[in-house]
Amino acid sequence: MGSPHAIIIPYPAQGHVIPLLALSHSLVAHGFKITFINSEFNHDRVVASLSKGGDGVEGIHMVSFPDGLAPGEDRNDLRKLTEGFVRVMPRCLEELIERMNTSGGDRVTCVIADGNMGWALEVAQKMGIRSAAFWPASTAVLALFLNIPNLIQDGIIDANGMPERSETFQLSPGMPPWNTSQFSWKCARDLEGERIIFKFITSNNQAMELAKTIICNSFYDLESPSFTLFPNLLPVGPLLTSQQIGKAVGHLWQVDTNCMSWLDEQPANSVIYVAFGSLAVFNQHQFQELALGLELSGHPFLWVVRRNLADGIDDAWLDGFRDRVKGQGKLVGWSPQQQVLAHPSIACFLSHCGWNSTLEGVKNGVPFLCWPYFADQFLNQTYICDVWKTGLSIDPDDRGFVPREQIKEKVDQIFLNEEMKARALMWKDIANRCIKEGGSSHKNFKSFVDSMKE
Ligand code: UDP
């Protein structure tokens, strides 16, 4: 028998491409050949950042599918994006598998799809190919999604996912509380969009039943009540590429690695790392206030100012700011975040609390300042602040605004909080034990690999 050959398909967004590439690398190390599917739009960006950075993706064959949107369309509009790829990608996948299986090359032996790409699991089923689902967000989010029929039955939401009233509830004791205003499908731009995303989630739930296994980027100790509720979910995380191959891959932006030598020059435990992932957007006023808050804090800071981090960045103002804080802060367009968080100079992480950023902070024992933007990020904040107790929340006022003084105050609090740092280090230790030989995630990963090879 030849090598196992897996087709791997992330949802076409940064926070999905990175962990699925990490998974791909782990599978290559276990003898798998990988065909990795990006949308054309993301493929071009991933390849551009790879070639400039000189990174290789050995053992991983990168392929692209159209996403059904026109070149200039807004891919941050999740409804549009979802409607687009669902229309065109299933046919592309069928054709690719047919081509691969008749060309005399490596037959496709399994499909591993993002749990948010249920259509791929349906294609695998139709073509008689074994499949698995990978869950890239917290297991608590998956538990919520899988509980949708109960939420409807209990009158918490209607059949379209709309909350019947404003309330906070728990799925089971020990799980973080949910507020009905913070459901992930509420991240669409209008009511119609929310309904469409909700429908998409319920159809993904059904598709996941076709998967032989559902693996999660998490670990037992981190979310044990969720795994008690759904014992069939298999945690294999935290999956991080930089730990496996010494560098992160799959970036949609050019990585500025110069910040690593800047970090080398900073004292241990002194730097605030500030990054809000790939999608969060600030308004101009808040963006500038954040900058002034960082300056006011007096601490060194490394701030990722993604090209589209604010709705219109005043370049002249930003240049002035950059000049003024030259001795204190460094601004980059996109950082090698996993390496940054592992650097001894990092003292805390001012974060939007995307799940990958959350896990990366946990894995490296870094306390958080939480400033969630949308979707599951509010739940991740609850985990950090109230369950694991490894961070503090930034609290916008009634107008949704955070003044610079609060930023300074919270930074001061986190720098002084030794207990929080100790707890963050405890979680780091647990996370590292889970992924070491003999650890729970490591064992789960091995049994997953075996089941995909059978
Ligand atoms: N990231 C990075 N450099 C940056 C900002 C983010 O490498 O400057 C990576 C980060 O390490 C994480 C991913 O981008 O793996 C963002 O995923 P997350 O789930 O945190 O947030 P999202 O972008 O989905 O909102």
Automatic annotation (TrEMBL):
<dbReference type="Pfam" id="PF00201">
    <property type="entry name" value="UDPGT"/>
</dbReference>
<keyword id="KW-0808">Transferase</keyword>
<dbReference type="GO" id="GO:0080043">
    <property type="term" value="F:quercetin 3-O-glucosyltransferase activity"/>
</dbReference>
<protein>
    <submittedName>
        <fullName>UDP-glycosyltransferase 83A1</fullName>
    </submittedName>
</protein>
<comment type="similarity">
    <text>Belongs to the UDP-glycosyltransferase family.</text>
</comment>
<dbReference type="GO" id="GO:0080044">
    <property type="term" value="F:quercetin 7-O-glucosyltransferase activity"/>
</dbReference>
<dbReference type="InterPro" id="IPR002213">
    <property type="entry name" value="UDP_glucos_trans"/>
</dbReference>
